[in-house]
Specification:
Layout (H helix, E strand, L loop, with lengths): L4 H35 L2 E6 H5 L2 H13 L3 E6 L2 H9 L5 E4 L2 H9 L3 E16 L12 H10 L4 E3 L5 H12 L9 E3 L4 H10 L3 E5 H7 L6 E4 L6 E9 L13
Parallel strand pairs: 1-2, 1-3, 5-6, 5-7
Antiparallel strand pairs: 3-9, 4-7, 4-8, 4-9
Length: about 250
C-alpha cells in the first residue's frame, strides 16, 4: 500500500482547520449562551393589586417594545412575601407600596436606588343602598357604622399592604373586627372584590383594581379622597452585592 504523504498531510491540515473552526464556533455559541443566561429576562416582583389594575400590562408592553427587554412578572399578595423574594434573590426589581417595610429592606442592605414612582389611593366600596349609611359620614364614623350595623365587610385577610391599611383603619377606631359580619377571604384584591360584590358587602380596595373591575360589579365608591387612603408606590432594585447573580444591568 502506497501512501501519498503530501496529500495525507494536506488532508490532515484541512481536517484540523475544519475541527478548529467547528470548536471555535461551538465556543462562541457556548459563550453567547452563557451571556444569555447571565443577561436573561428581567424578573419583576410586584403586588397583585398593581397586576390586577391592568396598568402593569400596559406599562410592560411599552417598556419591552422600547427597551427590548423581556420581563417576567411575579405577582404576590403580601408585602412580606414580596420583600422575601427580594431578600432571597428571586427577583431583580420590586414595585411595592409599604414605606416602613421598604425602608427596613433598604436598611438591611437588600435593596438600592429606591424611587417613588406613582401613587393611587384606596376607596371604600359598598352596596348602592348603603345599609350602614357610610356615605354621609367621614371615613372613621362610616367604619364604626359598619360595625354597629353588623353590615357584611369583606377583607383580603392576607397580610397584603391593602390588608395592612385596612387593619390600620380599624385600629384607629379601636376595633378588632370579628364575627359573622367580617369575612376574610385570604385572596388577592381581584378575588376579594368579586366576593364582596357577590355578597353585596363593603370592601376596601385600591382604586386601580376597582377601575379595572367596575364594569363587572355593582358595588360603588362610598368613601374616597381622604389622607387616610393615600397609597404610594416605589420601585427598588435588588442589591447586586447581596445577590451577584441578579440582572442588575437590566434592572
Amino acid at each position: 500500500m502506497v501512501i501519498d504523504i503530501p496529500m495525507a498531510v494536506k488532508k490532515y491540515k484541512k481536517n484540523l482547520t475544519i475541527n478548529f473552526k467547528i470548536r471555535f464556533l461551538l465556543l462562541i455559541i457556548y459563550c453567547l449562551l452563557l451571556a444569555g443566561c447571565k443577561e436573561g429576562r428581567l424578573r419583576l416582583a410586584t403586588t397583585t393589586s398593581f397586576d390586577n389594575s391592568g396598568l402593569l400590562k400596559v406599562i410592560l408592553a411599552e417598556f419591552e417594545k422600547e427597551k427590548k427587554i423581556k420581563t417576567d412578572v411575579i405577582a404576590v399578595g403580601t408585602g412580606a412575601a414580596l420583600l422575601r423574594l427580594g431578600r432571597n434573590g428571586n427577583c431583580d426589581i420590586l414595585i411595592t407600596h409599604s414605606m416602613p417595610d421598604e425602608e427596613e429592606f433598604i436598611k438591611d442592605g437588600f435593596g438600592i436606588d429606591r424611587r417613588e414612582i406613582m401613587w393611587n389611593d384606596f376607596v371604600l366600596l359598598g352596596p348602592k343602598n348603603d345599609p350602614a349609611k357610610v356615605k354621609d359620614k367621614d371615613l372613621m364614623l362610616g367604619l364604626k357604622n359598619i360595625v354597629e350595623n353588623q353590615a357584611l365587610f369583606v377583607s383580603r385577610g392576607d397580610e397584603s399592604e391593602t390588608h395592612k391599611k385596612e387593619k390600620d383603619l380599624w385600629e384607629k377606631i379601636r376595633i378588632k373586627p370579628s364575627g359573622k359580619w367580617y369575612l376574610e377571604t385570604r385572596q388577592g384584591m381581584g378575588q376579594a372584590l368579586m366576593i364582596a360584590n357577590e355578597n353585596n358587602a363593603y370592601c376596601l380596595c385600591d382604586r386601580g383594581t376597582y377601575q379595572y373591575f367596575k364594569d363587572r360589579i355593582s358595588l360603588v365608591i362610598l368613601k374616597e379622597d381622604t389622607n387616610e387612603l393615600y397609597n404610594l408606590y416605589s420601585v427598588i432594585v435588588i442589591n447586586p452585592k447581596k445577590h451577584p447573580h441578579m440582572n442588575y444591568k437590566k434592572a
